[in-house]
């Protein structure tokens, strides 16, 4: 009896924003393909994920938007969970780290390591503190100039330009992303996980697959960039001149000075929480616990013992946490299995550029579903295009034109065309009943001038099915879906070579027609099974067209067994359902609504491209030269006052100008301002501004302008108001 348990995890998405297509391609789609396939093999599988809901980023967004952290996480947990479900991502449990069961699981894990006595060290250090926001800063919320390459937007833990791992104190001219101000260093006490203790066994495990003499995985199945990145952390370097060592693993702080998160459950931990990268991977364990509670399962059998196969699906930016930090935590705890594989993908780009939420260069998953709401193939159209461009070993690129071409020229023209012909011909020739055919019937083979029997063709199909299986089990999903399409292409060629439509006209009872049609229906049945991990919606629709029961666990093994025995997957006399198109083309010139989808996406991309170009031009723009020095007496002559815009309107024949009415408390002023290209009039009613109140009046477009509103330019080149940060009294002087 096979007692092996397969635990599959996908990286916990951070619940402070919607997920984009790069996230889907990086972790969730590959993990879903793998989990679905193992279920089809009849394996005992639990596939878990959930929202990562702690850390500084949540509190920062909450402060910036005037919301509570709970409101933020509820919004994005629900949005991402629903979106995953709509795209067919088949989690057994999609949990959340705010779950009380997770808090207890993470705290118990921490306390077990504390009890070990030598897995932590508690030490005092200096960390950056934002005085304006009154809190310590997480590494990702400190930016500055990279000391290695000079990139001006490097983060406190890594420079995304050159890839160098950094600490916040290495940054040149550091500043807080919260207030924009320079943070100060303050002393604080934290628990440091002794990663340095685990370097040697981790090196052996990563490179040889062996721990304590036991073979745990085959390193040949691990991706080169995963092993390479691990070794860059694990290997120590020696300076040939000085003999000094550098690199290698160091103790890592796993507590933070925050109130939002899981409280540190030991004496001295008051006011501190577990670092999000310590508690988040434990979320895989707590999600399994929650699933086990709800399904009367033993959660420990999926995490502990020699019969566990644990596989983490992540993006390459999470390799260090899943291949070094979390395995070290599991090993230190002592009771847990280590990952069999971490098939981390590289990054998916959008039209040749990195996805960037901050710069607006992004297609979010829920936005895609909204845009394609009326399109019947929208889920599998996206899944297919992403699988074909998966960044498995190098960065990939999602392009809108390629998306349409992959769908229409491959999915529709190959798989859709085959199914449409098979269903229609079976209905036309045999009233929808599968014809009987002997395995010895000879038909024309795919090579010109050759023939084969139905039995020999079945052996070819078995080989193709086994290739698809091998690809999936090696995490080569691009090759796997190519193997799927090769099965469909094989059937299309056989149909085209044998031309049953021609033979049937002269000989309706021909064995060749019966043979090729029986084989074609068998292949359609193979595709209804083999397509399910990749294209679950298509698989279900095809099963319905063939009048077959929904797929069950183990059906892939049944498929292989039948093919080996030369039997029928679908019996002679079985009646299939009436024809229905499996796919609708996107680029259908007869359907204006589908063409509108193409135009909509192209327009969106053009807007994004223009926005990116403007941002780049702004970054490269030379700063304006500082004007000649003025004296303090000159400066004090300017009277700055706070005012509120109470009315705004466009000025005829003036594209750039708005007429503003500004309340100064003691009087009302009319000001003409050149901001019409940046703001709609109704959007700025109630905006507090800084007004140069003693500027001599000037007539513009027939209107007397009684002052000037102060404006500044942001990174995108948009004018923004320079005004008080808090609500001020109208008419108040700025000193």
Count of separate structural domains: 4
Distance between the termini: 81 Å
Q: What characterizes the major β-sheet?
A: 5 strands, parallel
Topology, number of strands: 32
Low-pLDDT regions: none
How many helices? The count is: 19
Please give the order of strands in the largest beta sheet.
3-2-1-17-18
Structural class label: alpha+beta
Q: Specify the CATH homologous superfamily of the largest domain.
A: HUPs
**CATH fold annotation of the largest domain:** Rossmann fold
Rg, alpha carbons: 32 Å
- Give the CATH architecture of the largest domain: 3-Layer(aba) Sandwich
Overall mean pLDDT score? Answer: 90
Outline the secondary-structure elements:
Layout lengths: L4 E6 L10 H20 L3 E8 L4 H10 L3 H18 L6 E4 L3 H17 L3 E11 L4 E2 L5 E4 L8 E2 L16 E5 L7 E10 L5 H10 L1 E2 L2 E2 L8 H11 L1 E3 L6 E3 L4 E2 L1 E2 L16 E2 L1 H20 L12 E6 L5 H15 L5 E3 L6 E3 L2 E2 L10 H7 L6 H11 L7 E3 L1 H31 L11 E3 L6 E3 H20 L3 H22 L1 H7 L4 H20 L5 H10 L9 H11 L26 H29 L11 H5 L3 E12 L2 E10 L4 E6 L14 E5 L5 E3 L2 E3 L2 E2 L1 E3 L5 E3 L14
Parallel strand pairs: 1-2, 1-17, 2-3, 17-18, 19-21
Antiparallel strand pairs: 4-5, 4-9, 6-7, 6-8, 9-14, 10-11, 12-13, 15-16, 19-20, 22-23, 24-25, 24-27, 25-26, 27-30, 28-29, 31-32
Helix pairs in contact: 2-3, 4-7, 5-6, 6-8, 7-8, 10-11, 11-13, 11-15, 12-13, 12-15, 13-15, 14-15, 15-16
